[in-house]
Amino acid sequence: MTDKDKKLSYRRVTARCVLSRDYFVDTSRLDVRNSQIENVSDEAWSSLRVVDRVDLSGNRLNTLPPLLLTENITFRGIFVHGNPLYCECDERWLAPWLTSLCSALHEPDSVKCHAPNWLSVRSIVSLRSDDFCRNPYTERFVFTFTVCRQR
């Protein structure tokens, strides 16, 4: 077995955070799906940039770090569906980044927003940048208030 054939699989373990490890450098696949992971440290993401396939599906990730935009990370397979991702204004970079992954992103339409409620269960790759920052409930209230005020 060559170094690049090393696979790490920790399914259904309870871990709150994936931290950087020296052995990530020699790992080709990391499988930590359904492990209740809430966070992946920036250092771990940096270490994972050489890993071909990363499966983080079915965890408790609320966000992915903007670091992913600047690191030269080229996954052949990344799995992030089944996480309760927040789609707030600061996360608007997610849609274009996920779309840029093309075929490397497993089940792209299954990567959905968990919050805020007006974006809940919408596929992130289907969203425009404005969708992350626009609260239709607030806009309706402001519009209604403006109309009533002009009478």
Number of β-strand runs: 8
- Which class do the helix and strand fractions yield? alpha/beta
Topology as a string of helices (H) and strands (E): EEEEHEHEEHEHH
Report the sheet-strand fraction: 15-25%
CATH architect. name: Alpha-Beta Horseshoe
Q: Mind telling me the CATH class?
A: Alpha Beta
Layout of helices and strands:
Elements lengths: L5 E4 L7 E2 L8 E5 L7 E2 L1 H7 L4 E3 L11 H4 L6 E3 L5 E2 L7 H7 L12 E3 L13 H5 L2 H15 L1
Parallel strand pairs: 1-3, 2-4, 3-5, 5-6, 7-8
Salient structural properties:
151 residues, 5 helices, single chain, two-stranded parallel ribbon, alpha/beta, four-stranded parallel sheet, Leucine-rich repeat, LRR (right-handed beta-alpha superhelix)
Overview of this structure, please?
25% of the residues lie in helices and 16% in strands. β7 (85-86), α3 and β8 (113-115) form a beta-alpha-beta unit. It starts with 5 loop residues before the first strand and ends with a helix. The protein is α/β, with parallel strands linked by helices. The protein contains 5 helices and 8 strands, in the order ββββαβαββαβαα. Residues 1-8 have low confidence and may be disordered. It has a 4-stranded parallel sheet with strand order 1-3-5-6, with no helix packed on it.
How is this structure best summarized?
The chain is an alpha/beta fold and 151 residues long. It has helices spanning 42-48, 67-70, 94-100, 129-133, 136-150; strands at residues 6-9, 17-18, 27-31, 39-40, 53-55, 77-79, 85-86, 113-115.
